Amino acid sequence: MPVPDVPRTAPSRTAPAPRPSRRFLVASTHAELVAASWRRSAAALPAPEFLAPVELSGPELDGYRRAHPLSRAMPLFRELLGSLADDGTHLLAVCDAAGRMLWVEGHRGLRGRAERMNFVAGARWDERHAGTNAPGTALALGHAVQIVAAEHYNRLVQPWTCAAAPVHDPRTGRLLGAVDITGGDHLAAPHCLALVRATARAAEAQLAADRGGSAGGWSLSALGRDEALLTGAGRRIRLGRRHSEILVLLAAHPEGLTGDGLAAGLYGCERAVPPVTLRAELSRLRRLVGPLLGSRPYRLCAVVETDAAGVERELAAGDLRAALDRYDGPLLPLSEAPGVCRLRRLLEDRLRRAVLGSGDAGALQSWADSPWGEDDLEVWERLLAALPESAAHRRSVAVRARLLRATFAQPVRR
């Protein structure tokens, strides 16, 4: 049998598979994002069809949003997105870092439709309370997100499409909330996501200008972070864990610390650490922060405003809601440095005691919904007692309290 001719251009080995297009990669990444959000939603929510809870209303809502930092950005949001919100097919929404809607604006008819699913000011739209949705998922992931129709976890929300972007404090990097546009399928276009992302960046720039940027001094963000963020002199420095611990300790002792005192705060009194180890760490830190770090005693040579001190200040002023809003989590949560552990415990205990003693249902709800309060039986029981009988989410709070009581009543296995 004759051998068939082989074309001269035939490759001598198998050709590589064509590389996936960028559009395919983006679509794949988005599908994974939505799937992960659905898994988080399913773990937190009892059913795929429900109403998001309304936590704030009336004078309480008015006072809360007047005091919120994003209130200063609302004129800008309305300027950039207000024309969309007035056309009868879009809503402009702004929420805080916990997913509480502060403003929901737009044509009256569209707002009426949104009210049927509790997409209203005062309602909680984070993933734990509303499932996969653009503002809630943007808060969870820390970047802009577009959620289209059936990608919403809650069936009641699936007729809608939305795009949202988080907004951060330009000095500290602290999450303030998110800006969102919500409407029909026409919002699935890529330019809608780009629009809300650009609006969020413009808001951050305005907030920085309002506060004079970072030229006014240094700030240290260490709540809820394993590595602190130091901002000042036109710089943003992400510190390593040991350097984070050193600056947190020095900021808490403006009078300065001796080498022995700083070593005890970092390593403990029982652990023998050669002095050269501490000097080497301080030398590396000084290369990062320059003249900000002084010696004899070790101290900060300029005022450094810490987010932890901001929480303490709000507590001292009696403004519990503001203190909770500033509290982004435990101080350097993974640190085992004895001095940091003590500062972390003191701040968390003071704030928790204030929440428990307030009888404020909103404050108790904020603590109960946080990772550090979700298993706190005493807080859940106080919240149940503080909620009026008519509260829409009272039943879910009672169920959670009952589950925690049953858990803590279990005998410890030996």
From TrEMBL:
Residues 95-206 form the GAF domain. It holds the Pfam family GAF. This is GAF domain-containing protein.
